[in-house]
Write a structure and sequence with these properties.
Helix content is 3%, strand content 45%. It is built from three helices and 38 strands.
Length: 552
């Protein structure tokens, strides 16, 4: 964000601190990346029993000797304080912790304290080898397979999963008597346009003594996609997707995420996880911490525009910079954050009943509200007339739906979307170069929308029409060529259309087999990865378990 004459502009909330001077996740990552006390953040291997612990350390200070610091250490219940070692700037050496009764599997916690009692850096070093997570293996007796005219049901010990024969999707998965999944599997990708799912066929059979498999086939646009959903006798669901033909029009920079999406009831409002991590120590409220729990909406006072939030950044549920002063909010940052290198990731109700992703660290997972049935501006159901630009993958489209938006500089240009329903929402935005747009419903002028705003706001409902008769309707947007006196141009911004009414609220569990966020490369971690592209035969496998899990 930056000031310009007569207005404030910007593209994102950059920086290590937010506007209220609260630490954002990048603050800790930057502090670790530039730490002047360098200790290999890895397990201590080869330590001799009943001898002091020896830790390699390097001094990256420019002028400070490490002897000027104090070291606090702890192993289990034992702890102590010791002076830092005599190590000049730029030198490396060994820190010897005088504790002999340690055991493999414990962690050596170190804090390096300066003369003003400030923590320069901290570590929690595992003593001995760390057990590597493995993929879950099928077990138990294969679920029974039952078929009717409308559905296929798999039933095992204490669980059942029903699939629709008309859509190929799960209609209900239960653990005991509790519904834990309501939909899926869907192919999931982020950062590009995904065509609608067209169902082809569904079959089910017992495949071995542990597993029964449901095979679902269909297409996304012109690309055949299949799902093999293998369910074992313990409620483990292993889903493998295969994309037979690459999608056309993929983003030049690749996708941000690719994997599988399932839906859970809205009552599933808490998560608990264990993951790999870049660092061994994180603040208790950092979204990158390797283990923890989070609830969808923290118990704190409701936020208000231009008032300091009560909690930390991770607990925020509103982003007024992106969504305007009337932002209705969403689940908190801690709940929605992408967790990579997942070992386990559980999404449950208050009583712990739900689903848990299980992995060898090769997948990422996150939860968000199930997206509304939005028709992206690139959807072929939308007709464009005139010199429109369809942008995607740009720095200024990153918060648009599907990372795309459409606009034109020419008065009289129009776009039209035909839909079946009783209402429609035009999803667009506001910005300093946007103009006034006429909105026609079924050929009749309904209103004129002024899309001007001093800063760009994304995914805004700029127009909403309800109360239409059930049936087929059209919405047409026409560029008037007029603008607010403060605007620099006459552009429209078309991001998506949302047909009303929509389905009941639910939460989506995204399990990514591929992910890459090059924009976050400056923060390190497991986000900057190989470019994600879909080729003929692209495949991936994810596993989640039905059950009751601890997320408190």
């Amino acid at each position: 964000m930056f000031p310009l004459p007569h207005k404030v502009s910007g593209t994102a909330e950059w920086g290590l601190l937010d506007i209220w001077r609260r630490e954002k996740p990048e603050y800790w990552l930057t502090k670790k990346a530039y730490s002047p006390v360098r200790v290999p953040d890895a397990p201590l291997i080869g330590q001799k029993p009943r001898t002091p612990l020896v830790v390699p350390v390097s001094n990256w200070f420019d002028f400070t000797n490490l002897s000027e610091l104090t070291v606090r250490w702890q192993v289990g219940a034992a702890k102590g304080t010791m002076p830092g070692i005599d190590l000049k700037p730029g030198a490396s050496g060994k820190l010897t912790v005088p504790y002999r009764s340690w055991r493999e599997g414990e962690a050596l916690k170190l804090e390096f304290i300066d003369g003003q009692d400030r923590i320069v850096d901290s570590y929690a070093l595992h003593i001995g080898p760390v057990r590597t997570p493995v993929r879950p293996r099928p077990d138990g007796s294969a679920p029974a397979v039952e078929e009717s005219d409308t559905r296929i049901t798999l039933t095992g010990a204490g669980f059942s999963i029903a699939f629709s024969k008309s859509t190929g999707l799960i209609t209900e998965a239960r653990h005991g008597t509790t519904t834990v999944l309501t939909d899926g599997p869907y192919l999931h990708q982020r950062g590009g346009y995904l065509p609608s799912w067209t169902f082809g066929s569904i079959t089910a059979k017992r495949t071995d003594k542990h597993t029964s498999t449901v095979t679902i086939k269909g297409t996304y646009g012109e690309s055949p996609v299949s799902f093999d959903v293998a369910v074992d006798g313990t409620g483990l669901i292993t889903t493998t997707y295969t994309i037979a033909k690459a999608f056309s029009g993929q983003p030049s920079g690749g996708y941000k995420e690719l994997g599988v999406r399932f839906c859970a009831p809205e009552e599933a409002d808490r998560i608990g996880w264990r993951t790999g991590s870049l660092w061994s120590v994180y603040p208790d409220d950092h979204i990158g911490r390797p283990s923890g729990t989070a609830v969808a909406v923290p118990q704190q006072a409701a936020p208000a525009y231009r008032e300091r939030p009560q909690g930390s950044w991770s607990q925020d549920t509103h982003t007024y910079f992106l969504y305007g002063k009337d932002d209705e909010g969403r689940e908190c940052n801690d709940f929605r954050a992408l967790r990579s290198a997942v070992h386990t990731y559980a999404l449950t109700r208050t009583d712990g009943t739900g689903v848990r992703v299980e992995s060898d660290g090769s997948v990422a997972a996150r939860v968000d509200r199930t997206p509304l049935r939005w028709f992206d501006d690139t959807d072929p159901a939308i007709t464009y007339h005139g010199a429109w630009t369809h942008a995607h993958g740009e720095g200024w489209t990153h918060d648009d739906y599907a990372d795309t938006e459409s606009f034109t500089f020419t008065a009289g240009d129009w776009c039209e979307f035909a839909f079946t329903g009783t209402g429609i929402e035009w999803i667009g935005g506001f910005g300093s170069n946007l103009g006034k747009i006429d909105v026609f419903i079924d050929g009749q002028l309904d209103t004129t929308v002024d899309q001007y705003g001093p800063v760009k706001q994304y995914q805004q409902v700029v127009y909403r029409k309800t109360g239409l008769a059930e049936g087929r309707h059209t919405i047409r947007l026409v560029v008037t060529g007029e603008k607010n006196p403060s605007s620099s141009n006459i552009l429209p911004l078309v991001d998506a259309f949302h047909v009303l009414p929509d389905a009941a609220a639910s939460r989506s569990l995204y399990i990514d087999t591929h992910w890459n966020y090059p924009d976050f490369g400056y923060g390190g971690g497991d986000y900057y990865r190989p470019t994600v592209r879909i080729t003929d035969g692209t495949t991936g496998t994810v596993s989640l378990r039905l059950g009751s899990f601890e997320t408190h």
